[in-house]
Input
Amino acid sequence: MRSVADRRRNRGSDALRSLMRTRGMIAGALCGAMLYGGGALCAPATTQQELQRRLAATTSVTWSGAPLREALTARCAAGGVGLVIDRRVDPGAPLELSAVDEPLESVLRRAASAQHCEIAVVGPVVYFGPAATARRVRTTAALRRQEAQNLPAAIGGKLLQPAALAWPELSEPREIVTASAAEAGLRLVDAERVPHDLWPAADLPALPLYERLTMILAQFDLAYRVDAAAGTMTLVPLDDRPTIERRYTVAGDPAATIARWRAAAPEATFRAAAGGVVVAARVEDHERLAVGKTAGTASGPATTRPAGATGGGKPPAGEKRYSLKLKNKPLGELVKLLRDGHRLPIEVDDAALKAAGISLDTLTSVEVADATLQQLLEQAAAPLGLAVQAVDGKLRITPRK
Output
């Protein structure tokens, strides 16, 4: 005889399967591929790399009193951009905006600002919502990823597994969250914390389950915690100031580095540590610090690196140096260029990256002058939580421990 927990999980799985359906017209809270103007338009990007390329593409719009939801979903569908519009954003708010050959990302940011909102990129999807939530959603998702990586594989693997999710018109978010928990083999113990609501039909491109849950629950100022031993998921208030803690090695006086970084990331907290600086900050702040854009000196990008990286200090005499400026490019493309195009000794621990839920499609930026190959790679890999180690004459890229 099946246990009560088994029966509940099966009911949750059945509910999830009943919510899944063929990709179709998207409206309201979440949008992807749409039919507009009589023809099928570009399917939504399925990787962050592709999403960034599409956001950088220029567009021209003239909105004078256009309903926000209708205007944004149509424009994003035309550009193949998956969009999450928070339930608290007025769907009929009139947009007054004109743009000529402007990047789509800039258009979305301007539209968000006019509604006292912001946007955030979560995987291959753009979240559009209240500024306070938009500033927290990426870091909240990153924390859930860290937790999933430390859970037993039977649960953590399901939370990290990318999959598409769709639901029909007038679906209840409470049912969506319950079914999503069941997908990970978990029982949602306090579903009543998700207020009753009815959502439009929606279709999400493939996202890890932890990202799907994060963006759904954030619209109710909620997050989740997992009790692996009990097989349960509990809803908790969304953290007011979620942060990720990382340690960076720095050249020179750590106090001087902290002073510069504090001006660039005033919400972050800093403390000096042996040979470096420990930073607790949002993901966006870590990305800026890791690429050295706020280091304050020309040598900053080449000398500011996460702890654990090797090759610090000046490169040995005679070692080849590199100068490179690269913005918002997939790390995998850079590695392929250096390894295959220039035949440089670089290895990637693909199995470890996959287990850690890290994709080389993730965008990174590099700005180095007179740097060693290892310093260049360390700067590019740091925003992804990766380390670069010299092993047997090769540089090996692995998840940071």
User: Anything to note?
Assistant: The mean pLDDT is 80. The chain is about 35% helix and 30% strand.
